[in-house]
Specification:
By secondary structure, this protein is an alpha+beta fold. It contains two helices and six strands, in the order H-H-E-E-E-E-E-E. The strands form two sheets. Strands 3-2-1-4 form a four-stranded antiparallel sheet. A hairpin with a 2-residue loop joins strand 1 (91-97) and strand 2. Helix 1 packs antiparallel against helix 2 (75-85).
Length: 168
Amino acid sequence: MRIPDRGVAPLWARRPVLPRRGDRGSVTAEAAVGLPALVAVLGAALWAVALVSAQLACVDAARAGARAAARGEPAAAVRAAAALSAPHGAEITVSIAGEMARVTISAQVRPTWGRMLPPVHIEASASAATEPGLADLSDAMSPGAEQTYQSPGETFESADGPSQDGVR
């Protein structure tokens, strides 16, 4: 029996194809290189999500503080309203200028899994017009005054010495 000459041998006449010895282990090597890169990308993505979350917490805290200051709440109540939403260790600055109240929240955020990485500084501020007819906006602030408060758990010193309640 003669095989027709079509340029390609039928399947029963072909020789079996054996894997080449040089390709063995290439999948393992590619996985060994690819998995650490995948873990690094995943870590960077999670860190970015944590930063965005902290930024949104600062924005929410600044808005809450500005609303409280605009309503004419005492300075302690403004700080407390802002500290509820602020990230741990955030610095809260309240200033009232004319008919505008402004609250600024700033924090240093460091990844919990990478203590060798430098902290990232995030900041958010919000302003609100004060309610009409409010002469004295707070018990400790006069218009144009500025107060800075560090949220609980952190202490700092100013030029006047250590502060017990966090207000400088």
